[in-house]
Amino acid sequence: MAANPSDLMDPPYGVIAENLESGTVVPFLGAGASLGADRRDNRFDGTILPNGSELSQWLAHKCEFPEQPATDLAKVASYFQIRTSRGDLTRSLHRVFGGAAPVRPIHELLADAPKAMLIITTNYDDLIERAFRAKGKPYHLVTYPEDDVNAGSVVAWKHGEPKPIVCAPNDLELEVEDTTIIYKMHGSIMKDEDVRKWESFVITEEDYVRFLSRMMMSGSVIPAMFNMHVRNSALLFLGYGLGDWNLRVMLDTLGRGTPSSNRRATWAIQYKPTPLERFIWQSRNVQIFDRDLTEFANAVRARMSP
Predict the structure, then answer these.
(1) DSSP code for 67
(2) Are residues 239 and 146 in the same domain?
């Protein structure tokens, strides 16, 4: 089989470094961004984080899921919730994501960038927040609540504020230029008991249906105040696998309303993508590079200004 062109070329490390230094790139963090080197077992106890397929199989084992392969996380999570309860599902996610898994070099790279930026992630873990706190860098945190009480809203913690703002996405007033904004599209683990009531996870099939229906009503997965910034920035997808169909929906919505001649570069860094994933990325005009994210982070850092 002929080599894929992206395997013969390095990512444009210098250009990506310049975009990070100027705040003109929007990183999207997928599950692969949180994976460590030690992946020899499935003891996901907070020190080793799983990808989506591994989390699905772990939950399937706990609830005796009746089908194999049990790799559809949304389907398995729905079954888990029906067999047990939402509370049991949430407690299981706390066991996985509530520990002290180490911050990865890609998180440290983003936290070290000199300019504020918009960071978007579908991860439940708090590694990117911990990287910013360890560097003493300010950030605003915006999450999506999956509950019906706050349907159609976002929950936003301004830097240094103990209580969040709950508002419609289009009413959110935060400036990307001033302070980095971390937008957690599918919710987030909340380790502090004082803010646990704002915790949410978009994980079951029903959660995704609600999320996508609200997205269609608003016209975008991105709050309106972020849209112009996204359209004027390069996009950098880190550790995403395109077996995740909701990511494909997100890619489609991001391209709407922007003439192809005006679109900035879009790159994806993914370790060992499948042929199908390569095809999907390339069909959406995304340059895909098969690279380990630690290797990628170190190469970009080497090209940034001292």
Answers:
(1) S
(2) yes
pLDDT tens for each residue of 208-222: 888 877 766 665 667
Interior angle at CA 40, CA 37 and CA 45, nearest 5: 85
Provide the β-strand partners of residue 266.
Answer: 235
Q: Which residues of 153-165 are buried (b: 16+ CB within 10 A; e: fewer)?
A: bbbbbbeeeeebb
8 Å CB contact between 111 and 132 = yes
Same domain, 187 and 118: yes
Could you give the CA distance from residue 26 to residue 28 in angstroms, rounded to a whole number? 6
pLDDT averaged over every residue in the chain: 86
Residues 256 and 113 in one domain: yes
pTM: 0.91
Note whether 22 and 78 are same-domain residues.
Answer: no
User: Among 57, 55, 79, 28, which Cα is nearest to 206's?
Assistant: 79
Same domain for 229 and 175: yes
Q: Supply the range of the domain harboring residue 172.
A: 10-36+102-302
In sequence order, what are the residues at sequence separation of 6 or more whose Cβ sits closer than 8 angstroms to the Cβ of residue 67?
Answer: none
The pLDDT of residue 1 is 38
**Model pLDDT, residue 229:** 86
Please state the rounded mean pLDDT for residues 159-167: 88
Average pLDDT for 181-187: 93
